[in-house]
Amino acid sequence: MEFILRTWQISDADSLVKYANNRNLTTYFTNRFPIPYTESDAKNFIEIALSDTQPLKYAIEINGEAVGGIDFHPQADILCKNMEIGYWIGEPFWGKGIMTDVVQEIVKIGFQHFDIVRIFAKVFENNIGSQKVLEKAGFSLEARFTKIIYKFDTYQDELVYAIRKEQLHIT
Prior knowledge:
Layout: E1 4-7, H1 13-20, H2 23-26, H3 39-51, E2 57-62, E3 65-74, E4 82-89, H4 98-113, E5 118-124, H5 128-136, E6 140-151, E7 154-164
Parallel strand pairs: 4-5
Antiparallel strand pairs: 1-2, 2-3, 3-4, 5-7, 6-7
Helix pairs in contact: 1-3
């Protein structure tokens, strides 16, 4: 399925609410992500995304509609050569291979536009779909932190996957 990675637009608020207001989706999100997800939440997020001095947050557009997002989280100090990514896509698009392609594209963007050598993602141990996305996109499991995530009265491991610039032969 064809997708476009682009900056968020104020006009994306309705589709953002449509796809983000889903408890199944937020099962693997931090508690900062509101549920229910309202129009006010969407507008606040889009305003933040548009205020970034460089593009860090991208909408995933399919058939003219923003159906998900992927973003960079710059690291500081001694981790400044690393970048974390976070991503999601609306439930109707799960299991179609779209997210693997999106992650591969954002990795190229990251290594081409930022002075970094490593991109990583943190994943809940029960989020098998996200683990498969990262593995198919060329990421390797680097670490497992035992029972450090606490969500919905349950402890889970956090898995850290990463890919390095040298693996892609990007200079």
